[in-house]
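Submission sheet (multi-component)
Chains listed below:
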Amino acid sequence: MNRPGRPAGPADDTAAVVLTAALELLLTEGAAALTPQRLHTVTGVSRTTVYRHWPSPYAFVSALVDVAPVRPGEPAGDPANDLHAEIDLLCDRLRDRPVGGFLHALVAAVAVDPAVAELRRRYVADLLHPFRTILRAAGASEPEAADGAAVIASPLLVEALLLDTDADRGRAHRSADLILTGLVPA
Amino acid sequence: MNRPGRPAGPADDTAAVVLTAALELLLTEGAAALTPQRLHTVTGVSRTTVYRHWPSPYAFVSALVDVAPVRPGEPAGDPANDLHAEIDLLCDRLRDRPVGGFLHALVAAVAVDPAVAELRRRYVADLLHPFRTILRAAGASEPEAADGAAVIASPLLVEALLLDTDADRGRAHRSADLILTGLVPA
Amino acid sequence: MNRPGRPAGPADDTAAVVLTAALELLLTEGAAALTPQRLHTVTGVSRTTVYRHWPSPYAFVSALVDVAPVRPGEPAGDPANDLHAEIDLLCDRLRDRPVGGFLHALVAAVAVDPAVAELRRRYVADLLHPFRTILRAAGASEPEAADGAAVIASPLLVEALLLDTDADRGRAHRSADLILTGLVPA
Amino acid sequence: MNRPGRPAGPADDTAAVVLTAALELLLTEGAAALTPQRLHTVTGVSRTTVYRHWPSPYAFVSALVDVAPVRPGEPAGDPANDLHAEIDLLCDRLRDRPVGGFLHALVAAVAVDPAVAELRRRYVADLLHPFRTILRAAGASEPEAADGAAVIASPLLVEALLLDTDADRGRAHRSADLILTGLVPA
DNA sequence: ATTTAACCGAGACGGTACGTCCCGTCTTTAC
DNA sequence: GTAAAGACGGGACGTACCGTCTCGGTTAAAT
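Outcome: structure written.
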């Protein structure tokens, strides 16, 4: 039995307009700008409406994470090639903002709402995951794969997030090779 | 020729009281709590005085970096031992907040005042520096040392800052060994 | 087509509470006390709300002038009687503050916001106007009426505003008689 | 026995510089501008020094009243001529600021410091006084003289202070004639 | 020449009010 | 029931001035 009246939740276009603007704001001005007030002035959607549907910072970032998920590169089969491809993919993403900016924003958002920390953890884990998968496919044990992923990807994240340097692909590729050769002792 | 009048800058005790409380706040409640208002209510020093001497977030973080600098462990001579000691030191610091908390705070402060980014870069560079020095002493070339420092320390930073995990010392020590053996071709 | 949403402007009771208190403050403590801060502590209405609706001193005084206008006595027909009645009315008002206090306040408010000068001029002109009207009715020419009004009322204003003396009704009545007799040449 | 040491009170030039600037400020920007802070920025004399010698608004206005006293016109002997001359003198003064501005300022200063009210009263009384003297010399009784002074001078004050109009000399002269003829019935 | 008292400037400090901004909740109206 | 417009209280922000104070260095009289 259907309840009468208008279905709950934001109208589709309202949600689209607001979340698009939110992502835009997040990437250009950082997490601090992601307030109902700002969204109202930017989108014209009324402050009241924004509050109704996304009552907390968490709700926003959470919605955005769903809108802009991290899609891993698709494996071609050869672990070595896949690994190098994944490294390049991550470097590009960190440089071109979609991921780098989002990560920056997530880190900053935690300062405002601690609950976001969980989203940050998941987001970073998602970034590291492809490396682990590929290393497993290459014959590494689970802990070996985790270590390898950390060794390859972490420096890239540190450079992009903490040092504001371009990620050093060369080093990452060398590390990858080193790890792969360590796996096939023959 | 001396100018007349009272010497400029905060009286010694004022500076001490405020900066001590600031560090305390930073480590216990995070960077978001480090506001003039909070410092006033916590220390009793008047809001006006706080603004007078530390008008910007940058001024604060900068003063704190000077108050609580990162002191590297003192090298004992044997590169291998030194490297492992330095790893343990960093892990301890990241766990016990003095460094981990401060780093968190620096990252958050950048969201408010971009000028802090420069302090963050320097702070992180200071964290990585000891590793580079030791690796150079162990016979690595300059780029090799930089790479090695990144490979060893970055995962620790990522775990502490982005994943909220305890740093995985084991992996760090293994990486260190791997790198050291790579250096001595014998 | 009507716009949706709540009608603009302060809710009726808010306006009433604030303006009542404002008038009260004005008359008891003088114009210097008429600040948003004072009104907040006195009425309990939040400082923000006060600023929202009366952003400037001018807005306040202006609203008060509308709330407490100067109502002339109603003419009974006989110019001589009317004139003397009007004199007594003005003297009473100057003594009992409603007008005297308000005038004081207007003068003081000009020091803060020059735009109030216009309100002051109008207010004083409104005070002098009844005298002119009555003198015209008694047969005076327009300039004669203006002069007469000035001669009769000005000393009262000076005494109340500048000398802090009770207005000297006797002199005012004598001046009035003198002027009236000057008008009837017989 | 004289005490040794430097004599108390401000050095002559300090007092001169500050009071000159104070008068200037008072006339150009009104009483609200007459603060230690402003005087410091204008004269370069340190805030501390200003506070030392003129601790209250009252002290300032009081010092200024002594610096710029109201000097009555000198009587020539003939009451009629003297009276008209005095009227012109007052009108000129009200127009040319020295007196008009000062009076404005005095009125405003009362709002800040009620003690100034006494100075205002005296100042206004000093303005009215010449008229009374001359009328007495013309044969008026004391109350008659007071009334006459009020009738002649008050409208001028009201016009200058409350209506921002140029004082109407014509009316004042006519009033004077009227009063003088009333005195010599013969 | 030395006292000695006061001047003077620079600035710290606590306090209060200012005017602004954003937050989060609520109420009123229109669709 | 959604949406818009806006009132409202609350809190922090950063600024400005106030009045008091402490600290140095200077100056002018009286001894």
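Remark: Residues 3-11, 14, 45-49, 52 of chain D lie near DNA strand E (CB under 10 Å from a C1').
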